[in-house]
Amino acid sequence: MQIAEVFVNIPVKSIAKAFSYLVPRGFVLEQGWRVFVPFGGRKVEGFIVSIREEAEDTKHEYALKEIISTVDEEAWFTPEMIKAARWLADFYLCSFAEIMRLFMPGKSGLKITVSYAAEESMGGHLMLAMPMASSVYQYLLAEGPRSLREIRKALPGVGEELPGLIERMVSYGVLVKDYLAEKRDKARYEKYVCLTAEVTEELQVDFKRKKAQLRLLELLAKNEGKELSYTALREEKVSPATIKLVEEQGLVEVRQRRVLRDSYGGKTELNNAPEIQLTEAQGNALAELEQAAEAKAFQGFLLKGVTGSGKTQVYMELAKKVRALGRQVIVLVPEIALTGQVVASFKEYFPEDIMVMHSRLSMSERNDAILRVRRGEAGIIIGARSALFTPAADIGLIVMDEEQDMSYKQDESPRYHARVVAEQLARIHGAVLLLGSATPSLETYYRANSGELKLLELPERIGSLPMPLVHAVDMRRELKLGNRHIISRDLQCLLEETLARGEQSIIMLNRRGFSTFVMCRSCGEVIKCKLCGLPLVYHKNGRLSCHHCDVAEQVPDVCPKCGSRYIKYFGSGTEKLEQELREIMPRARVIRMDRDTTGTKFAHQEILSRFRRHEYDILLGTQMVAKGHDIPNVTSVGIISADSSLNMPDFRAAERCFMLITQTAGRAGRHGGRGRVIVQTYNPEHYAVTAGLKQDYEEFFRQELAMRKELFYPPYSRIVKLLFQDEDEEMAKGKGRRLAKAFEERFPGDRRQVIVGPSPAVIAKFRNIYRFVVLIKTADLPAVQEFLREQKLHLRTEVAIDIDPITML
Predict the structure, then answer these.
(1) Across the beta sheet with 753-766, what order do the strands follow?
(2) By 3-state DSSP, what share of the chain in percent is helix, strand and coil, each rounded to 5?
């Protein structure tokens, strides 16, 4: 008898093991299948991770239950997916099922079925000399596409050999496999009219008086495939009534075909791929990358190129090589806002070979995209971090653009980082991993300098264009001179000069809303969120919003603490900046891009397209305007409160400040004269600011690395953040203390293992739950992971484990 080891698809931490189920007789199952199993008195979905043979008389502690049925008609998970999921579950200390759900759109809901059809032109194939193969072929030729279950029912004599036989027939091209799907969102189908008779002169004479019907026949005859969709015929003014009349005469046949949605079809302005002359640095980098791709073995690279140096061109040239080798490509971008631009660039080279995947797509669009990959219709997958979990069978290249970006880290369980997942997938597939950035994360650059990754550099902009001139404005001095506006006088002058020349500007302020907080001037009370305790942000629509909890409430008329009516708005967000710009520069056309203006699917792309067409003079927004955008007419950039991150209690604060200055400044002067950038700061002496002004990554890296080494922070250690939560404050704190004590007992006097805390989280109380943080700094992460498993922390619901947290907040 066969026993299947099944992980049930239930999001419960304590269910972290596989359960054994009997495989019913007649079922042909293997690793990777999704099945329905009885569990706790109900029918649930599960994933088969292994199958073993046992003797019929084998004794088990409990009577084994049988698998009820299969979800799909073939394995959903490839061996590579399961191998990656096992490693990731072990690394991130989460359940295997949690990781497996990442490989399904919407965590569940898509059911794939497979149909097989006879290839008419292969009727004389040698394989059909086999009686069983011939009977299958003749059945499908007569009946049309059928599922495996239908074939087995119609041909009971073929027996258990049928699945293997059909796969061999598919491999020889005798049969054609197609995928269908059943899911919550209905598939989209389109009707096609197919010509079934030859349009002879005699037929044309017979239809001389039936002009509409004759025109339909002639349109079909002229078309190479002898078929046209209802949509195409509608455009040719052919009515459904005409189609029906011709169909009744047996001259055409109406068929229905599934249409796979391409969310970006028609959304990009396509041109023919231009002939690009690579720079010497690009050519050298590409030569090394292509050599690695041909080897079909894992190799990791860091492509460090200044802003405007042509990193995207290197990605596309390498993708061309990998596709020529018959392998698939995944291209990751950090922000949905950048996806449209990357898709547009790639579509110039690969117009029909691209699939886009990110969280703003509907369930139907994601399911259709996955089916395109499974069918082999798309070999280049572009998207945000979720694109990594697309079921690509043979990955040859994973590109991670702007690899330093925080949005590559998921902030809910499983708390994975896309860089870790990408590297593991590249190792499993024997693929090239290419990390690209103008300002790589310190950990990545450290790995490149130590030889773990191969460093490739693009030190100059395309066409040897100069880097922008960056100038700092000390806002403390502005205040002393009486300027209480958000915008300094220098930045206002730069914006006016740019507008007068007919050029465009970008302004970045990393705070949305109208005011940062609302405070009572009588008693100093700040109006805070009732759920998390963070200050509520005032928006111009008259509402107070929490940007952490997404809750909103009305501005109080009186102070809730002292009853005073002296309530004042403090700080500035993008809404207030937009208002100020309209007041001081009434002639300028201003458009804002932040979370409040980009709620719909293609809002980012629409805003950027309109700005690119010069319908607006100034684009202002949060950090989503800082990265990746290449807009020819932008010559000036303003960065407001660039150093605000320096005040955050986070060891990466200086790194974020430097990267934000460098990345945002890089939007200026990419296609013409030298760009100009003004950085408004209250800390002009800080090394992150001074290095950012000079666009000097090496200087920043040297100073920041010295600080990290002294304080035993990454890259000299790895960090594990543990968040203990409880309705009782002392209970939450006590759990953290007990863990810290056990840690010190396990690693006594070990300077490579440091534990800090427990201390209150920045959001110390959320939805009436108290939260305490314990930080572990370690030079031996596997030893810490093993310790946490021994403590069974990964099974406890009141503890959140974050390996390599991106923020300490």
Answers:
(1) 753-766, 769-778, 718-726, 799-803
(2) 35, 25, 40
Query: Which residues in the chain land under pLDDT 50?
Result: 107-109, 181, 183-185, 266-271, 512-515, 570-571
Tokens of 778: 């370690």
3-state secondary structure of 40: coil
Predicted pLDDT at 755: 92
Alpha carbons 705 and 709: distance in angstroms, whole number: 6
Strand locations in 91-164 (E): 111-118, 146-147
How crowded is residue 582: how many other Cβ atoms within 10 Å of its Cβ? 13
Instruction: Report the distance separating Cα 270 and Cα 262, nearest Å.
Output: 15
Q: What is the pLDDT of residue 361?
A: 67
pLDDT of residue 572: 53
Q: How far apart are the first and last CA of the chain?
A: 53
Amino acid sitting at position 177: K
Helix (H, G, I), strand (E, B) or coil at 680: strand
Backbone dihedral angles phi then psi of residue 587, each to the nearest 5 degrees: -80, -20
CB 508 within 8 A of CB 623: yes
According to the model, what pLDDT value does residue 539 have? Answer: 57
Residue 228 φ/ψ region, left for φ over 0, alpha for ψ in the -120 to 50 degree band, beta for the rest: beta
129 CB-near residues (< 8 Å, 6+ apart): none
How far is it, in rounded angstroms, from Cα 676 to Cα 638? Answer: 9
Tell me if 377 sits within 8 A of 410, measured CB to CB.
no
CA distance 197 to 203: 10
Exposed, middle or buried, 57 (CB in 10 Å: 0-12/13-18/19+)? exposed
Using DSSP, state whether 531 is helix, strand or coil. coil
Tell me the C-alpha distance between 448 and 25, whole Å: 54
324 exposed, middle or buried (CB, 10 Å; 0-12, 13-18, 19+)? exposed
CB 306 within 8 A of CB 460: yes
CB 544 within 8 A of CB 534: no
Distances, alpha carbon 80 to alpha carbons 296, 379, 391, 431, 653, in Å: 15, 17, 9, 12, 37
- For the stretch 328-367, pLDDT in tens is 999 998 876 666 678 888 888 888 888 887 666 666 677 7
Task: Assess contact for 443 and 717: CB atoms under 8 A.
Answer: no
| Whether the Cβ atoms of residue 247 and residue 254 lie closer than 8 Å to each other | yes
Q: What does the chain come to in residues? A: 809
Place of tokens 């110390």: 764
Outline where 3-95 has alpha helix (H): 79-92
Q: Is 774 helix (H, G, I), strand (E, B) or coil?
A: strand
Facing residues of 232 across strands?
A: none
The dihedrals phi and psi of 766, each to the nearest 5 degrees, come to -135, 120
Phi and psi at residue 42, to the nearest 5° = -140, 170
Residue type, 512: R
Residue identified by tokens 């994933």 is 47
333 in Cβ contact with 383 (< 8 Å):
yes
Please name the amino acid found at residue 775: L
Q: Are 193 and 217 within 8 A, CB to CB?
A: no
157 Rama sector, left if φ>0, alpha if ψ -120 to 50, beta otherwise: alpha
Per the omega criterion (within 30 degrees of 0), is the bond before 714 cis? Answer: no
Q: Please report where in the chains the tokens 């455009």 appear, as a residue.
A: 235
Question: What residues does 778 pair with on adjacent strands?
Answer: 718, 753
Tokens standing for residue 11: 């999001």
Alpha helices in 513-642 (DSSP H): 574-584, 603-612
Among left, alpha and beta (phi > 0; psi -120 to 50; other), residue 757 is left
**Which residues neighbour 340 within 8 Å (Cβ) at sequence distance 6 or greater?**
264, 267, 268, 602, 604, 605, 608
Using the structure block, give the residue that is written with the tokens 């080798």.
325
Exposure string (b/e) for 32-53, b if CB count within 10 Å is 16 or more? bbbbebebeeeeebbbbbeeee
Q: How far is CA 688 from the centre of its chain?
A: 29
Record the pTM: 0.74
Residue that is written with structure tokens 């989460």 in the block? 94
